[in-house]
Amino acid sequence: MAGKPQKRPRRELNLVQMLPNFLTLAALCASLTAIRFAIQGQGQMAVGLIMLAAVLDLLDGWAARALSSESAIGAELDSLADFASFGVAPGLILYFWMLKGSIVQGWPGLGWMAVLIYVICTALRLARFNVGNNRPASDGLEKRFFRGVPSPAGAMLAFMPMYFAFMWPSAPMLPVWILSLYLMAVGGLMISQIPTLSFKSVTVKAENARYFLIAFAAFAGAILTSPWATLFGLGLAYCGSVLIAARFLRKPARKPEEIVLPDNTGD
């Protein structure tokens, strides 16, 4: 006589352990609301909400590791939220703000084509990360470098023309074909093999913590008083970090076979 199927033990989670998922959903709500503001023509509010989503995306990963509440469903939810927050939403915001109705030298809808390419590159970037996340770690480089630009950084770079326009509203806007090529180039960076610095493994010596706190306070003051200039400068600094990372990995002392950039560094 076959025995009765045993019931699986029910796993209970307290609300604190669910905090990472709450943060992920908050980021998703912020990015979807950003699309609404973009449709209404409120570009600054839309970009601000995407920046908020980026902060929440950073916090949910930290919270999951700190609370030891990482789970498969949480990882999938985070990936889907990232696609909406840093792929679909930025693409639509840019389209509604400056690319809508573009007709360039017999190419109707060039702006929309650029948006499609950017969003598809974001999806490929996240898919590559998800596949790499299931592979075992290979060496210490994966803790210090990404392969390609992560999707949150890609969104930050995609908004660079908007930061500039918000700083100088009277400045003439760049031609649509240039903006479209720029957006496609950012998408290409996300799926490229270019090494980019990962700040997840950055540590600060205890005796230098006070200087780090002062620098953070200065950054917070700058972002609150001159947000667009600060974000524009941050974007330029990030581009510089990409060049630094590429130069570091191309030092003659390193053998090519020693430089392996895995996909499981995080996004």
What is the overall silhouette?
Answer: globular
Q: Strand tally, please?
A: 4
Number of helices: 9
Radius of gyration: 21 Å
Mean pLDDT: 83
Order of helices and strands: HHHEEHEHHHEHH
Describe this structure in words.
- The chain is mainly alpha-helical.
- It has 9 helices and 4 strands.
- The protein has a domain at 86-258.
- Helices cover 63% and strands 4% of the residues.
- A two-stranded antiparallel sheet has the order 1-2. A two-stranded antiparallel sheet has the order 3-4.
- It is globular.
What's a quick, concise take on this entry?
The protein is mainly α.
Please supply descriptive tags for the structure shown above.
267 residues; mainly alpha; two-stranded antiparallel ribbon
Walk me through the topology.
Elements: H1 19-39, H2 43-67, H3 72-99, E1 103-104, E2 107-108, H4 110-133, E3 145-147, H5 151-158, H6 160-167, H7 176-190, E4 195-197, H8 209-225, H9 227-249
Antiparallel strand pairs: 1-2, 3-4
